[in-house]
Amino acid sequence: MATAGRGRPSTGEDSRLVTGCGRRIAVRCLRLAPAERPISRVALDVGPDQGGEPGVWAALTADEARDLARLLLLHADLAERGTEPAGPTREDSPST
Asked: Which of 43, 50, 52, 80 lies 20 to 30 angstroms, CA to CA, from 24?
């Protein structure tokens, strides 16, 4: 990923990725400029899957985007280590 100083993405950079299951995830800065109070958000757009099922999107404040980034990094680390999050596992659940 190209960066422009201090690890920030450069302008004009493609900020999309395609997952292993074919979903396109795009991240953009969304700016709405009403005269009395401009609004900036980080827009996260998860496109349709390979079967055409619709995707979803979210508009996050800067703090919400940072919180999501922390959660993604935490869970990526857990996934790499094969660590299970706290809570009942399939083996702990009662049989039906």
From this structure: 80
